[in-house]
What does this fold into?
Amino acid sequence: MNNKHKGFTLIEILIALAIMSILTLVAYPAYQEQVNKSRRVDAQSGLLALSNALERYHINNNTFVGAAVGAGGLYPAETPIDGANKYYDLSIPVATATTYTIRAIPKNAQVDDGCLQIVSIGTRTRFAADDCSGATSNW
It folds into this structure.
């Protein structure tokens, strides 16, 4: 009779689990950064769409004063527009007759990402996560 057992030994299973754990530890941070990056791009798209809406508002009203986001405003107040989870609040902190400043302020899972801003003259800025008033870099 042949009493050979077929299957994996405990050592083989432990080695496979160790390899999978190492791969997961290496891959997960890169995956998270890609997810954060895609959310940031969605916020940038929302800011550009709001900027376009503000320019249309200015054509019709000859001023940026009175433009608003949110219910009844020019554009939704949060991004992404679709989906239940929102990661940025859009706002218009400055609106004069000839200029505007719009911001995307991170929240929820993106809270450590930093603010994004567009000024009517075309300047695009990204701010540090703990300071939405101090520029750190352009997009």
